[in-house]
Amino acid sequence: MTFRSFTIILIFKILLFSAIGLKAQQQSGEYEKIILRAEQYFDQKNYKQARIEYENAIRINPESSYPKLKLNQIRELSPDPDEGRRYNSFITEANRLMGLREYTKAREQYFWANVIKPEESLPVQKIKEIDATLVELSRKKELYNRSIKTADSLFKLELFQDAQTEYLYASGLLPDEPYARNKINEINSRFDQARKQQSNYEKHIENADQLYMLQDYEAALQAYNEAIKIKPDERYPQNMIERITSMGAEQRSLETVYGQVIENADRLFNEADYDASRTGYEHALRLKPKETYPTERIAEIERRIEDLAKSEADYISILENALRHYEKQEYAKALTQYRNAEKIKALDSESSRIVHEITGIVEAEKKYNQALADADNAFNSGNYQMAIEKYTQVLDMKPENTYPAEQIAKINEILANLADQEKAFN
Questions:
Q1: DSSP 114
Q2: CB 283 within 8 A of CB 214
Q3: Chain segment 282-312, per-residue pLDDT in tens
Q4: CA-to-CA distance for 96 and 105, rounded, in angstroms?
C-alpha cells in the first residue's frame, strides 16, 4: 500500500468515526475491514466491487451513513445498469411481505430499495409507515400480554364468562395470535357441554315432575335419581326423593296410585288437554297393563285428535280460498268463505282485519249502488234538478266512474234544449 493510499484511508477512517460517532467505533472489526476494502476498491476506481463492499458494510451496520454517502458517490461516477431491476425486485418483495404482514422483513426490503435509489420517496414513506405500525403493534402486544395474564387468572378461577371477555379483547388486539382464539374455543366448548348437561338434567326433571303429578311415584323416583346422576349437587331432585320415600306404603300402593292417575287423566281429557291426558292413561297402562279403560280412552283421544286435524286442514283450505277471492277483489265470495271458516273456529287477527275491510267495501258499494239507482229514478221521472244532485253525490263517491258525469252532461243538454224551446214559444 502506498503512503498516499494509507493517508487517504486514514482520513476516511477519521471522517467515518467523526460522522457516525461512538456507536460506529463499537462496531465489529469486520465492519472496519469491509470499509477499508471498499475504500481501496474505490481508490482503484473499481466501483462495482466497491459498491458490493459498501453494501456489505451497511448489512453489518444499517444505521451507518458513511457507506450510503459513498454509494451515492459511486452512482454519480459509475451508474449501475442493473439498478432499476434491483430496486424493483426489492419493492416487489417488500410489497409481498407487507401483504403477509411480515413488517420487519418488509422494512428491510424497503431499506435496500432506499439504499439503491435514495431519491425515490416510496421506500422512505413505507419505512415510516412500517415504523409506526411496529410501534402500534408493540403497544398492542403489551396490552395483549396484560389481557392474557388477566384472562388466564380468571380461567383458573373458573370464571369462564369473564375470562372469555378478556380473551376476546386480547384476540381483537392481535387477531393472528392463536392462543387467545384457542382459549375462546375451549371456553365455548365448556359452555356447550354445560348447556347439554343442563338440558339433559332439565329433561329428566320435567319427566320426573310429570310422573309425580300423575302420582306414578315409583317411576318418578327413578327419574329423579337419574337427574341426580347428572347434577349431584342439585337439591331439588333430592328433596323430591325424600318427599316420595316419606310417603306411607298405602299411599304409594298400586291401586291407590292407579286410581289417582286415572282420575287426573280423566280431568285432563275433559279439559281437552289430549296430549297430557294420553300420557296419564299410558302411565295407568304401565301400572295395570290388563285394564281396558285406559286403552279405550287413548283410542278416543286419537279419534278426537284426528277430527281436530281434519278440521284444522279444512279451516286452512277455506282461508286460502277466501284470500284468493280477496286478492281478486271478489269481495262477496271472499266474505262467504271467511264466514264458513268462522264456523270451524275463530279467525286469526289478519283474517279478521280482512273481513272488517271487506265489510266496509261491500257496505260502501251498497250505498253507491243505491245512490246511483236514486239518481237514475230521478232522471227517468224527469226530476232533473234532483237527478243532478244525486249524480253529483254519486260522482263524489267514485270520481273515476264516468257514468254520473255523462248523465249530468246529458241533463244539462236537455235543460238547455227545454230553455231554447220555451224561449222560441214565447
A1: H
A2: yes
A3: 988 888 888 999 999 999 999 988 887 887 8
A4: 10
